[in-house]
Automatic annotation (TrEMBL):
Xref: InterPro entries: AB_hydrolase_fold, CocE/Ser_esterase, Galactose-bd-like_sf, Xaa-Pro-like_dom, Xaa-Pro_dipept_C, Xaa-Pro_dipeptidyl-ppase/CocE
UniProt-recorded name of the protein: CocE/NonD family hydrolase
Domain Xaa-Pro dipeptidyl-peptidase C-terminal: 304-579
Biased composition (Polar residues): 386-411
Taxonomic superkingdom: Bacteria
Lineage, highest ranks first: Bacteria, Bacillati, Cyanobacteriota, Cyanophyceae, Leptolyngbyales
Organism listed in the record: Leptolyngbya sp. NK1-12
Compositionally biased tracts (Basic and acidic residues): 361-385
NCBIfam families: CocE_NonD
Length: 600
C-alpha cells in the first residue's frame, strides 16, 4: 500500500548530556502506527543522502516514519563535532527517541552509506532494544585499514577532500563566509603543493581541530584507531543486516570485512550486495564504462523489502534467495552466491626479457604449469585481507617476509641467472592515479597511456581463447629488491581489449620496507611481498587479454614515498630521492599473480 505523505516536521531531542539534536521527520498521512527508519548524518539533514538513495518521502509513502537527523555539531544540532567520538551514546539516544515518536510502533531500522553507514554500527554497538535491523553501506569497519590507510599508505586524495568538506560545514555553521569560499574552492582543486609532505596548510589555518591532523599523526594501527573503530565494539551485536558495497568503492574492504565477521557468527540473516559502483553515485556508468541498465541501483526497492521483512513481518521472499548478490561486470548481470566467492587461486607467473618497462610486448603473464595448470596457493597473511582481525601489525612489517607455497629459499637460489625488470621511480614525476577505488573520480578508465610510461612494468597474457570469469580476491606476489629503506608498490589488473585499449579492473597499494641485506646492490636476496587487490567480479571476454601493471607510485590517490623510511607525517619532497626497484621473475614462477577464476 502506498500512503500519502504529510508535511515534513522538524523535531528535536536531547541527548543524555543535554545536547540538542535536530531531525526532519516524514510520516505517512494516516492514523496508523508505523516502524521508524532512522538516518544520522553530518552533512546537513536536508540532503538526506539523496546522492544515492530515494528521497525520505518515498520511504514514508511505503508505510514508514522516516527520521533524518543531524549528528552532534552538524547541521543545526548543537554541541561540538568530534569525528565518530559521540556516535555510540548519541546513536543509542536517537534510536530510543525515534522508537517513542507519535505513531511509532516501537520498531526501528537504520540505513545510510559512508558516515551514515558508520552511525548505524555505532548505534548498534549500544544494543538498544528498539533497533531491529540495519542496512550499512560502504563503511570502514576497521577505520585504519578500511578508510584512512591502505597497505600502510595514507589515502591522500580522498582523505584530504573529505576533511575539507567537513571543514566547510564547520565554516558554514560559524557563518564564516571567507573561510567557506576558500574551502569550497579548495575542494574542487585540492591544494597539493608537496606530494610527500601530506600536511595541509589550508586545514592548519581554517580547521586546526580537523581529524585529518590526527590521522596523519597516527600512521600505525595503534590505540587511537582502536578507540574510534566500530570493530572494537561489535562483538556482542547480532542483528539481521543488509550489507551494501561497490567494486570501485574505497571502503569495500570494510564492507566485506564486516560482512564476513557477521556472517561467520550471526544467528540472523546477513545479506550482501555489491554493485559496479564507486562511492557515489550508484548508477550504470562508473568512470568511463557503461555497465548497462541492470547496473542502475536496485537498493531502494531492496531495502524496502528488507525492512518489510524485519520491521513489518512480511514474507518478501528475500530469505529464500542466496545471501550474496554480486554484479558481474563485463556480462553486466547480477549473480547470486551462497557465500562470497573464494575459488582456489590460479597462478600466472611473470615472464620478462628485462624490458617490461620499455615495451608492452616484453613482459608476459603465463599460467603456471606442473604437468597441467596448477592451482597454487599464495602464502596467507594476516592484515588488510584478514576479515577476522582488527588492528593487525603494521603492513610495513607484516608483509616483509611473505612468500608463496614454494619456499623463498628454493625460489631464490638460482637468481644469479635471472634477469630482473628494473623499475625507476622519480618523485618529481610520480606515476599518476587514474580511477580505481582510491582515486577521484573512481571507476574504470582507459589507461594505456600510463602503461606506456617507462616507470610502469606491464605483463600481459595472450588473448583469451574463452571467456574468463573472475570473482573474489586476487593477490600478487612480487620478489624484489630496492636501493632505499622504504618503497611503495602499486599493482593494477586490467583488461586489454582487442583494439589495444586498456581498462583497469582492480588494484592494490602497499608501503614496504627494504631490509639492508636485500638492497638492489646485492641482487641475490630478493624479498617476497604480497599485495591483495580489491575484490572484484568480472567476465573478461574471449579475445581480450589480462594485464598486470606494476609501479612505485599512484599519486595523488596515495602520498609519494620519499624512500627514507620516515613516517607518512614526516619528510618532504626535498628529502625524496629516486628509488630503483628490481622485480624478479623466472621460469619456475618466482613472481606471480593469483587469479580468482570462477567457474561459470
Amino acid at each position: 500500500m502506498v500512503y500519502p505523505v504529510g508535511s515534513k516536521q522538524t523535531l528535536s531531542m536531547l541527548t543524555r548530556d543535554g545536547v540538542r539534536l535536530d531531525a526532519d521527520v516524514y510520516r505517512p498521512d494516516s492514523a496508523d502506527s508505523f516502524p521508524v527508519l532512522l538516518m544520522r548524518q553530518p552533512y546537513g539533514r536536508a540532503i538526506a543522502s539523496t546522492v544515492v538513495y530515494a528521497h525520505p518521502s518515498w520511504y514514508a509513502a511505503q508505510g514508514y516514519i522516516v527520521v533524518i537527523q543531524d549528528v552532534r555539531g552538524r547541521g543545526s544540532s548543537t554541541g561540538e563535532f568530534e569525528l565518530f567520538a559521540h556516535e555510540i551514546t548519541d546513536g543509542e539516544d536517537a534510536v530510543n527517541w525515534a522508537a517513542n515518536l507519535p505513531q511509532s510502533n516501537g520498531q526501528v531500522g537504520m540505513y545510510g552509506f559512508s558516515y551514515q553507514g558508520m552511525t548505524q554500527l555505532y548505534a548498534a554497538a549500544a544494543r538498544p532494544p528498539a533497533l531491529k535491523t540495519i542496512c550499512p553501506s560502504m563503511i570502514g569497519y576497521d577505520l585504519y585499514h578500511d578508510w584512512a590507510y591502505e597497505g600502510g599508505a595514507f589515502c591522500y586524495q580522498l582523505n584530504l577532500g573529505w576533511a575539507i568538506q567537513l571543514a566547510s560545514e564547520t565554516a558554514r555553521r560559524q557563518a564564516n563566509s571567507d573561510a567557506y569560499r576558500t574551502l569550497y574552492t579548495a575542494a574542487r582543486n585540492l591544494p597539493i603543493t608537496d606530494p610527500v609532505d601530506l600536511h595541509s596548510g589550508i586545514l592548519n589555518q581554517l580547521a586546526p581541530n580537523s581529524h585529518y591532523h590526527d590521522w596523519l599523526a597516527h600512521p600505525e594501527p595503534d590505540a587511537y584507531w582502536q578507540i574510534l573503530s566500530p570493530c572494537s565494539y561489535m562483538e556482542n551485536v547480532d542483528l539481521p543486516m543488509l550489507h551494501i558495497g561497490g567494486w570501485y568503492d574505497t571502503h569495500l574492504r570494510g564492507t566485506l570485512r564486516f560482512y564476513r565477521d557477521m556472517a561467520a557468527r550471526s544467528r540472523f540473516p546477513q545479506h550482501l550486495i555489491v554493485g559496479p559502483w564507486a562511492h557515489l553515485p550508484w548508477g550504470r556508468k562508473v568512470g568511463s564504462v557503461d555497465y548497462g541498465p541492470e547496473a542502475n541501483s536496485p537498493i531502494d526497492r531492496l531495502q524496502l523489502r528488507w525492512f518489510d521483512q524485519f520491521l513489518k513481518g512480511i514474507d518478501t521472499g528475500l530469505l529464500d534467495q542466496p545471501p550474496v548478490c554480486l554484479f558481474e561486470m563485463g556480462s553486466n548481470r547480477w549473480r547470486q552466491f551462497d557465500q562470497f566467492p573464494s575459488p582456489a587461486p590460479i597462478a600466472y607467473r611473470l615472464v620478462t626479457t628485462g624490458l617490461a618497462a620499455m615495451d608492452e610486448r616484453e613482459g608476459r603473464l603465463e599460467p603456471v604449469r606442473d604437468g597441467g595448470d596448477a592451482a597454487r596457493e599464495p602464502r596467507r597473511t594476516r592484515g588488510d585481507g584478514d576479515s577476522t582481525q582488527c588492528f593487525a601489525a603494521s603492513d610495513k612489517t607484516q608483509n616483509s617476509n611473505l612468500g608463496s607455497a614454494d619456499s623463498p629459499e628454493a625460489k631464490t637460489q638460482n637468481l644469479k641467472h635471472c634477469l630482473p625488470d628494473t623499475l625507476v621511480h622519480d618523485p618529481w614525476r610520480p606515476v599518476p592515479s587514474l580511477g580505481g577505488h582510491a582515486g577521484f573520480p573512481a571507476g574504470s578508465f582507459e589507461r594505456s597511456a600510463i602503461d606506456c610510461r617507462s616507470d610502469v612494468l606491464t605483463y600481459t597474457t595472450e588473448p583469451l581463447a574463452a571467456d574468463l570469469h573472475l570473482a573474489g580476491e586476487i593477490t600478487v606476489e612480487l620478489y624484489c629488491t630496492a636501493d632505499t629503506p622504504s618503497f611503495d608498490l602499486c599493482a593494477i589488473l586490467s583488461e586489454v581489449k582487442p583494439n589495444g585499449s586498456v581498462y583497469n579492473i582492480t588494484q592494490a597499494y602497499q608501503r614496504l620496507t627494504s631490509p639492508r641485506s636485500a638492497r638492489l646492490t646485492s641482487r641475490i636476496s630478493p624479498t617476497p611481498h604480497q599485495l591483495t587487490l580489491q575484490p572484484t567480479c568480472i567476465r573478461i571476454p574471449q579475445g581480450s587479454a589480462i594485464r598486470l601493471s606494476i609501479s612505485a607510485a599512484c599519486f595523488p590517490a596515495y602520498g609519494v614515498n620519499p624512500g627514507t623510511g620516515a613516517a607518512v607525517h614526516q619528510g618532504c619532497l626535498l628529502d625524496a630521492g629516486v628509488i630503483t626497484i628490481a622485480i624478479f621473475s623466472e621460469s619456475n614462477g618466482l613472481s606471480c599473480v593469483y587469479l580468482a577464476i570462477q567457474q561459470n
